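Tip: read the tokens left to right.
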């Protein structure tokens, strides 16, 4: 192992996509942003705990459902803000205020009856989350960035957009067919090749 100091924000080592501006944005959520940046310079693979509520809120979803939400946001919607995984959960960074508003939106009778939306944990004022290191490895099983912060002011979805993504992800998970189930013992013939 070499004793050469690694710059976590150099272009050559920016494997996970966190840029210096993205790291500064993340660090701004902490009480002491310069200390957080200094820690990352010294230990670029160290995750940190950051406060929610002022710079961002976090919607914490089960991994598979969270992945469906992110897919809906990118395939059919406006995209997402930063997204990370942590211990089998998906962390969607959202606009401040989302943690307070989203539970009431999800509680509407229309969405509450489906049961297809798993409980989403909303982290806002007074909460803190562990965020992956700027130089996390893709092979890390505990935490990594899927959509890394890359600007000082990333776009963050609000509660309505997160709700839209959750409803779309739930609908995609539930397949409803108007056709009766097929008879497994029926003989099927290919008639497309007959003359």
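Filled-in amino acids:
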């Amino acid at each position: 192992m070499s004793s050469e100091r690694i710059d976590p924000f150099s272009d050559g080592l920016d494997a996970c996509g966190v840029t210096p501006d993205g790291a500064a944005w993340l660090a701004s959520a902490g009480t002491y942003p310069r200390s957080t940046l200094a820690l990352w310079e010294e230990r670029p693979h160290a995750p940190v705990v950051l406060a929610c509520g002022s710079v961002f809120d976090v919607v914490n979803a089960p991994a598979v459902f969270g992945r469906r939400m992110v897919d809906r946001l990118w395939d059919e919607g406006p995209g997402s803000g930063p997204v990370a995984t942590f211990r089998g959960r998906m962390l969607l960074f959202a606009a401040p205020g989302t943690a307070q508003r989203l539970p009431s939106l999800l509680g509407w009778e229309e969405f509450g009856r489906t049961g297809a939306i798993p409980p989403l944990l909303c982290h806002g004022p007074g909460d803190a989350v562990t965020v992956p290191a700027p130089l996390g490895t893709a092979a890390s099983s505990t935490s990594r960035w899927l959509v890394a912060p890359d600007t000082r002011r990333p776009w963050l979805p609000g509660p309505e957009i997160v709700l839209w993504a959750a409803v779309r992800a739930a609908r995609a998970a539930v397949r409803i067919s108007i056709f009766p189930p097929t008879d497994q013992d029926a003989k099927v013939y290919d008639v497309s090749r007959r003359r």
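The longest helix spans residues 159-173. Residues 11-167 form one domain.
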